Amino acid sequence: MLDCKTINLKKGSTGTKVKELQIILQKKGYYDGVIDAIYGDLTVQAVKLLQREQGNSPDGWFGTKTCSKINQNTTLETPQGNTNASGQKFMKDEIIKAGKVFRQHIKNNNNYPNYLEMKNSNGKTYQVSRALYMGIFEGMNMFSIKKGRLPNYVVANSTANNPLCIDYQNNGYNCGPTSLSMCIQMYGEYISESTLANVCGTTRNGTSPASLNSGAKKIWIQIIRNST
């Protein structure tokens, strides 16, 4: 276990403490790089992802505050099967399927799964780490924003800067609550479209900007209370 009282790791740090941190981050699904005892860009990204889920400012520095929270749960999940998914091609339908599993998990457990089981374009099954599947989701979302359609496939080769699982509204007037739900996911929380529709006073005519703003403030206050 890392000694959180004296830990102070950041980009450029090296040594056994960095190696131990990388092993913990990898087994928890945050890190998908080489265990090289060098605090490089991939380690920074992994720590930022961890910090977002903790509700902390994602600065990539692994100090006492971040360390104390990661050590509150020292059970390390070791996935069964092939985990070397970096560079693999995942088709659109498989990503959408994984997204449904992702959303169901956070609904049931109020946290992100460490791994998602996904099949690549050749039908081979992989246990895709949190770092990689967040990058896959972000890749699909950014493509759809730029091109106006979903990509045919995404290659797993990066971690996400803003972990976001794209969602689809259940009717023709819940666009505001659905968008708010996706925004909340970027902070490691999940609140359903229907719950947000009630909070924001959504009707069949939609949601007014003022009501959406008011509902977002109420929800954000509740999230802060639950995290303290």
UniProtKB/TrEMBL annotation:
What the entry lists under Pfam families is as follows: Peptidase_C39, PG_binding_1
List the InterPro entries.
Peptidase_C39, Peptidoglycan-bd-like, PGBD-like_sf, PGBDSf
Domain named Peptidoglycan binding-like: residues? 15-67
Which biological process terms from the Gene Ontology are attached to this UniProt entry? proteolysis
Q: Which GO terms describe its molecular function?
A: ATP binding; peptidase activity
Top-level taxon of origin:
Archaea
Question: What does the entry list under GO cellular component?
Answer: membrane
Sequence ranges assigned to domain Peptidase C39 in this UniProt record: 168-220
Q: What protein name applies here?
A: Putative peptidoglycan binding domain protein
Q: Which organism is it from?
A: Methanosphaera cuniculi
Tell me the lineage of the source organism. Answer: Archaea, Methanobacteriati, Methanobacteriota, Methanomada group, Methanobacteria
